[in-house]
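Appendix C. Worked example: Hydantoin racemase
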Amino acid sequence: MRIQVINPNTSQGMTDKIATAAKAVALSNTTIIATQPQHGPSTVESAFDEIIASAALMDEIQTGIEHDVDAHIIACFGDPGLDAARELSSVPVIGIAEAAFHMASLITRRFSVVTTMSSTLPTAHHLLDRYGFSQMCASVRATDIPVKELESMTSTLYSALYHECLLAINDDGAEAIVLGCAGMADLVARLSSALNVPVIDGVAAAVKLAESLDQLGLRTAKSGFYAAPKPKAFVGRYQHWSKE
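Step 2, the predicted output written as structure tokens:
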């Protein structure tokens, strides 16, 4: 199968890291197509960033549709534009936060999310509520590491991340850790070994869920909530979406 993995920000370094994580767990007959928008923020760390990134993300989804991909993955822990992308595409669209929560729920009753900036905490809590995992989440902790700095993980940054994970386990009662940023995808093995608990990366989780849906022949339901958008006119920078 062909999976389009979209980094919603415009950082090529982050896209490369995400691609490596996705390819590491993909089946031998799965092709990973890693992309990023041509326009938008260099990182997604606020509601404003998310809105701008989501609009550009739709162009990437449409490109994936035109290239007949079998699934799309939105590789940002805020799952930006997820509902809109599912309206556009008939193949599965998976957000990495939703994928990570589902995977965590299969192996523990108490997990914690350890993420980047404190500004992203409300988004994580919102998604936990939306997806129905709030009662299973022991805590959501921020390292206050800027997303951009994850491209070159120093010993100081790793120590800050490790410390928050340790507090989640020892103080909050977490039995597993969900990493709250796609830029942490390359740290799973290192953290899991150091912490001696399961560590879940949403990119890898989303790839395995996409492959499972493909093997089961399941696609996005299009008769209700995710029905295709009605054709209409768009103006200005969004004129290319016009269909009448």
